[in-house]
Write a structure and sequence with these properties.
By secondary structure, the chain is mainly alpha-helical. The protein has twelve helices and nine strands. The chain has one domain: Glycosyltransferase. 51% of the residues lie in helices and 6% in strands. The protein binds glycine.
């Protein structure tokens, strides 16, 4: 079980930055992914590859240590190569290129990185299915068993399109991202503010078929990380579009999360588990939800969202933060895919959003996702 000790948010931030500085060289040009008691690494060929440069860019921004910037920049060519060779490109182009290319451009003005981000947005736009008005999540475009699959996580991939629409004056990117968000709201958000992890449409007619899970306990349960993606994702679409409908959606999914996972406890991996189901935590869902609540606080000016995020981050620090300085991860107890036996790990995206939340709470986060630069 998680051990508990009280560390203030500012001290947790200092520990986290120190740990990244102490360990970043060990990965060379590879990417930490998941694992415990140490991260496993992989080349740039999977959906999580953006989070490591994202962590480096956050850390560079916070410390102004140019060695961290140099390391993040050294990873950029692999993102260019990946796009060119089309290595495992899915809707997660948004995660990948927001935290590598857009982040690099934002913090350094690198025009090559900007152009790479725009090319990635163009590739993402090709996954849009106009019959169903959605971005296809997985698989080859228009074919195979996932041709009609939308997943809630995609809400976090939309900011790359909104940004590129503005940056490259391509209104179409904005329109299809906004339309995907509307489809997600209509079919993946249930009446009580909970979400389906995925939803299947007929890719040829666009006809809605059924909600299904992939990483949750059951189709009608509530996969926690998906709910967290929805909080942050709808808040970001509300910010980029200025539309009240999406802000209301962000409020609704946040209210559901807060009802079913009180912030003084780290969240379980699924919030609607029957008795006897495995009770793993998912600290990454907590970190993502905290960032979403902080975005809602920023958009609405409501202190309650900020307070809930602060309690949640304090809970994660106490119960899930790695306290052993010899270790490389920041947050323990991440659940990548419980039904495939992947739980109780460091997850690179859990670490990314944990650091983003710590920086936001202390007033030092660059805004890689939103429309308002620092
Ligand atoms: N986007 C996949 C996940 O959250 O595991």
């Amino acid at each position: 079980m998680p051990s508990s000790s009280v560390i203030p948010i500012q001290s947790a931030l200092e520990i986290a930055l120190q740990r990244i500085k102490a360990n970043y060289q060990t990965y060379d040009l590879d990417f930490p992914t998941r694992g415990y008691p140490a991260y496993e690494t992989a080349p740039n060929d999977h959906w999580v590859a953006g989070f490591w440069p994202g962590l480096l860019w956050l850390s560079y921004h916070a410390t102004q240590d140019t060695a961290l910037r140099t390391q993040a920049e050294a990873l950029l060519p692999s993102f260019a190569e990946r796009l060119e060779k089309q290595i495992d490109l899915s809707h997660d182009l948004g995660f990948l290129y927001t935290l590598s290319a857009r982040a690099a451009w934002m913090l350094t003005g690198d025009q090559t990185a900007r152009d790479l981000g725009i090319r990635a947005a163009q590739a993402l736009s090709k996954r849009y299915n106009p019959r169903g008005n959605f971005i296809q999540a997985w698989g080859e475009i228009g074919t195979g068993p996932d041709a009609g699959r939308v997943i809630v996580d995609c809400m976090m991939n939309l900011p790359l399109l909104y940004w590129a629409a503005e940056e490259a004056s391509e209104r179409r990117y904005y329109d299809l991202a906004r339309q995907h968000a509307a489809t997600t709201l209509q079919y993946l958000v249930r009446a009580d503010g909970s979400t389906y992890h995925t939803y299947r449409f007929d890719p040829h007619t666009g006809q809605p078929l059924a909600g299904e899970t992939r990483q949750g306990f059951a189709d009608e349960s509530l996969w926690t990380r998906g709910q967290a993606w929805a909080i942050y994702g709808f808040a970001l679409t509300a910010q980029w579009t200025g539309e009240a409908e999406f802000l209301d959606a962000a409020r609704d999914v946040a209210a559901c999360f807060l009802r079913e996972s009180p912030v003084d406890k780290a969240p379980l991996w699924d919030l609607r588990l029957p008795e006897g189901a495995p009770q793993y935590l998912d600290s990454s869902a907590g970190a993502i939800a905290a960032c979403g609540l902080l975005r809602l606080a920023h958009l609405t000016g409501e202190a309650a969202y900020h307070a809930q995020a602060e309690i949640l981050v304090t809970t994660l620090i106490a119960g899930c933060m790695e306290k052993n300085d010899d270790r490389t991860g920041l947050l323990k107890y991440g659940a990548q895919h419980v039904t495939e036996g992947l739980a109780d790990d460091y997850l690179i995206y859990g670490d990314y959003y944990f650091l983003e939340a710590l920086l936001t709470l202390t007033g030092h986060a660059p805004d890689f996702w939103g429309s308002s630069y620092e």
